[in-house]
Specification:
With 151 residues, the protein is an alpha+beta fold. The chain has helices spanning 2-24, 138-148; strands at residues 37-38, 53-58, 74-78, 81-86, 89-94, 98-108, 111-122, 127-131. A 4-stranded antiparallel beta sheet has the order 1-6-7-8, with no helix packed on it. A 4-stranded antiparallel beta sheet has the order 2-3-4-5, covered by helices on one side. The chain is elongated. The mean pLDDT is 82.
């Protein structure tokens, strides 16, 4: 009976040391090439027309839990706007409403920078986050978005 307690205690100590080491010295994820866009210096027309459809990025998983408010099942890129969809809700973000699109690294359990994302900062102070852990082809989506705004 006494030996069993020492074995269990030893296993718990080994797991504890492993998790503490991973918390303070986590491995780094893959390297990403980020693109950022600043809309502060651009004079964009205030149009409410979406324009031509360019690209769509769909979610890897269609099930989104009710308390995950910042996840979207689809992001559509148009000439004048980005349309984010989640079930029957739609959020249209026109380019003239944006202040900047900033890249960000998203950490996962015991991994720094496992995923990447982009923060769409509005001129009114609102921010919307698109995550690569949720949306497929987010890097292609941002590449096509950057091609709309040369320099």
């Amino acid at each position: 009976m006494g030996i069993d307690k020492f074995i269990y205690l030893g296993i718990l100590v080994i797991f504890g040391v492993f998790f503490i080491i991973k918390m303070f010295n986590p491995p780094f994820g893959p390297q990403y090439k980020f693109k950022a866009i600043s809309f502060a210096d651009k004079k964009l027309p205030k149009t409410t027309d979406l324009g031509k459809h360019i690209f769509v990025s769909r979610a890897k998983n269609k099930l989104i839990l009710p308390w995950e408010f910042d996840l979207w099942t689809q992001a559509d890129l148009f000439e004048n706007a980005i349309v984010l969809k989640r079930y029957k809700k739609e959020k249209v973000i026109f380019f003239y409403e944006l202040n900047a699109i900033e890249p960000m690294l998203i950490n996962s359990l015991f991994t720094k920078g496992k995923y990447f994302g982009y923060k769409l900062k509005g001129k009114n102070g609102n921010a919307t986050i698109l995550k690569s852990s949720n949306l497929c082809d987010l890097d292609i989506f941002i590449g096509k978005l950057c091609s709309l705004f040369q320099q």
